[in-house]
Design goal:
By secondary structure, the protein is α+β, with helices and mostly antiparallel strands. The protein is built from 19 helices and 34 strands. A hairpin with a 2-residue loop joins strand 18 and strand 19. Helix 18 crosses helix 19. The mean pLDDT is 92. The structure holds guanosine-5'-triphosphate and magnesium ion (MG).
Length: 636
């Protein structure tokens, strides 16, 4: 049996709630205030068994003040029942709700003309004509129009029949996405604890599942599940679902949050989208405007930046925009959203998320940003993956990143990766996907850097691995560095030894004596660790006392190859000692809330005197390991 969600839409008082009651026997208005005022304020729910189709209704308020509530329910529907009262015909919220459905990409539905009993045949025909006019050129253009009276019951059976027919034609929910339940209600049920409800827009939820509540990132457990008022073991996409959650208090949950698999999706605040601005929008969209954004069941404020060359999007047009959202939301590629003017509150447009984890674009990169968004908007699967991998450049795209960006299941990610690898668009480095182009570029850069080093320093054995890693792989996963080196080794151009990388054909013109001196010097500094000797002392200890100038040259080799590091004047340290110090510092700061350390604590931690402490701290500042703040250092 299929489960579908039918949303009502339409102007206030046009008979949406009464229609749902006539169909299901359920009054979706549950708030006392709704009953008292005779209007719907917040979304309500009902369900209907039509044999082969099970319908969950989301009944929305028509009042213009409550469009925000309407949006919390409208985002997950399969099918819309656009309600138009025969005695009033098309009114402002008929249009606004219909616009919203179009912008959200609802693709299926019907028009229901209510209150048929209040008008004569001639007027009814006029309303039919106006409904046709409204829907021309839209997804409802050829949709059925059914006239009913919820009062007399006329047409209700015919409407059920129509609902069953189009319900079984509505496109099935894609199985490509991981579980996602945007929460539209949360409350405490005595004896049960926290309960949330929402339309399960993707995946499945099982009793006993561990899930994550986002954006709070709270781990929760599914204690129980209800669909259509009945206890179930499993709920699946397309069902109105109530979830009893363990591990959390209902007061910590609010509308707009999302339930998702553990550590799978990530909240975001910077997204790139394609926006369509309604013809009825009062003015063009321009950068720095602040709008209300409705995505999933969430409503957030966002400031926008128009990415188009003209700097604006005119009413009736579409274009690329970046939203900087003021509070984190869950979004993945392809999600639809609605924007409303900050004031007066009015729906002005909507669109589709193309890049859920974007970053601020520099003015000179705008053309590239637009090109990427254009490609993203026309692609899916492996092509989309290749575009994201390309954007990640030398850093590469970990699969977890792709999962958060797209909401794809593991199977979909694997299929897309397989295809992208077969197409030669990307390379897979232990789970990180990197574009073939970036990988080739990295290989070339590493290879050239090593060659240049040999040229500069014919006496050096090779370039320190660490120097290479820092120069080109500072922000990449460590596997990537290893993969590039090993690929170059396989090709036969490079040789990687313990700490250094050299060209295979490189032979160093270092005499046995100098080799000996170099190794002794290294031992001296390694042994001294942070209590580094002065240069002269070191040369002395290494046995180069008699030929100091030559000793300095050999020492320079150690510096060039990255084994020794110049911290200050003639103060040198072995890299291993500095790495160890940085590690200790990170451990120390990791245990402190403000991640800070003062000079005294630093001296203790490193076991050194002030003479070394200050130059070392200044060195760490330069390396951006620390940042000075007054007399303290903050670990970065
Ligand atoms: N005569 C007649 N009255 C109807 C019919 N359907 C609804 N009404 C009346 O119209 C009024 C508004 O109906 P509702 O169902 O509350 O309208 P609504 O669209 O849900 O209104 P909001 O939720 O506030 O937007 C009520 O007084 C209903 O009794 C109908 O088919 N015939
Ligand atoms: Mg109502």
């Amino acid at each position: 049996m299929r489960s579908i969600i039918v949303g009502t839409a339409g102007h206030i008082d046009h008979g949406k709630t009464t229609l749902v009651r006539a169909l299901t026997g359920i009054d979706a208005d549950r708030l006392p205030e709704e009953k008292r005022r005779g209007i719907t304020i917040d979304i309500g729910f009902a369900d209907l068994d039509l044999g082969d189709v099970r319908v969950g209704f989301v009944d929305v308020p028509g009042h213009e003040k409550f469009v925000k509530n309407m949006l919390a329910g409208a985002h997950g529907i399969d099918l819309v029942a656009l309600v138009i009262a025969a005695d009033e015909s098309v009114m402002p919220q008929t249009r606004e709700h219909f616009d919203i459905c179009r912008l959200l990409g609802v693709s299926c539905g019907l028009v229901v003309i209510t209150k048929k009993d209040l008008v004569d045949e001639e007027l009814l025909q006029l309303v039919f004509a106006e409904a046709r006019e409204l829907t021309v050129g839209s997804f409802l253009e050829d949709a059925p129009i059914v006239a009913v009276s919820s009062r007399t019951g006329e047409g209700i059976e015919e409407l059920k029949q129509t609902l069953r027919e189009i319900g079984s034609l509505a496109p099935a929910r894609s199985a490509d996405f991981v579980t996602r339940l945007p929460i539209d209600r949360s409350f405490t049920m005595r004896g049960f604890g926290a309960v949330v409800t929402g339309t399960l827009i993707a995946g499945k939820i099982n009793e006993g599942d561990e899930l994550e509540l986002l954006p709070a990132k709270t781990r929760v457990r599914v204690r129980g599940l209800q669909v259509h008022g009945a206890q179930v073991k499993q709920a699946f996409a397309g069902q109105r679902t109530a979830v009893n959650l363990g591990g959390i208090d209902a007061t910590a949950i609010e509308r707009g949050m999302t339930l998702a698999p553990l550590a799978r999706l990530r909240p975001t605040q910077t997204i790139d989208v394609r926006v369509h601005l309604l013809v009825s929008a009062p003015r063009p969209l321009r950068s720095r405007q602040r709008v209300r954004m409705h995505i999933g069941a969430a409503e957030v404020l966002a400031r926008l930046r128009v990415l188009e060359e003209s700097g604006e999007i005119k009413p009736g047009q579409h274009g690329f925009v970046q939203f900087r959202i003021e509070s984190p939301v869950v979004a993945v590629c392809g999600d639809r959203f609605i924007i409303r003017a900050y004031s007066p509150q009015q729906t002005i447009g909507g669109g589709e998320v193309l890049d859920a984890f974007s970053s601020r674009h520099r003015a000179r990169d705008l053309a590239d940003a637009r090109a990427l968004l254009q490609s993203l908007s026309n692609s899916e699967g492996a092509t989309q993956l290749a575009l994201f991998a390309g954007r990640a450049g030398h850093v590469g795209l970990p699969r977890a990143e792709l999962a958060a960006q797209t909401g794809w299941t593991d199977e979909v990610i694997e299929a897309a990766a397989k295809k992208a690898l077969a197409d030669g668009a990307a390379v897979d480095v232990e789970g990180t996907l990197i574009s073939r182009e970036s990988f080739a570029e990295l290989k070339r850069m590493v290879s050239e850097e090593v060659a240049a080093h040999h040229q500069r320093e014919p006496l050096s054995r090779g370039l320190a691995r660490e120097v290479l890693r820092e120069r080109f792989f500072a922000h990449s996963p460590p596997e990537l560095f290893r993969a590039v080196i090993s690929e170059l080794e396989k090709e036969g151009s490079l040789l990687a030894e313990k700490d250094i990388v050299r060209r295979r054909e490189h032979t160093r013109a270092l005499s046995d004596e100098d080799t000996h001196l170099r190794d002794s010097l290294e031992r001296v500094y390694r042994g001294a660790a942070l209590a580094a000797p002065s240069l002269n002392e070191a040369l002395e200890r290494a046995g180069a006392g008699a030929s100091a100038p030559h000793g300095r040259k050999v020492l320079q080799l150690l510096i060039d190859s990255g084994v020794l590091v110049k911290v200050h004047g003639e103060m040198f340290f072995h890299r291993a000692a500095l790495d160890e110090l940085t590690k200790k510092l990170r451990e120390y700061a990791g245990q402190r809330a403000d991640r800070s350390i003062d000079v005294a604590a630093f001296k203790d931690l490193a076991g050194i005197s002030r003479k070394y402490a200050i130059p070392l701290l200044e060195y760490l500042d330069r390396q951006r390991v620390t940042r000075r703040e007054g007399d303290r250092r903050i670990l970065l």
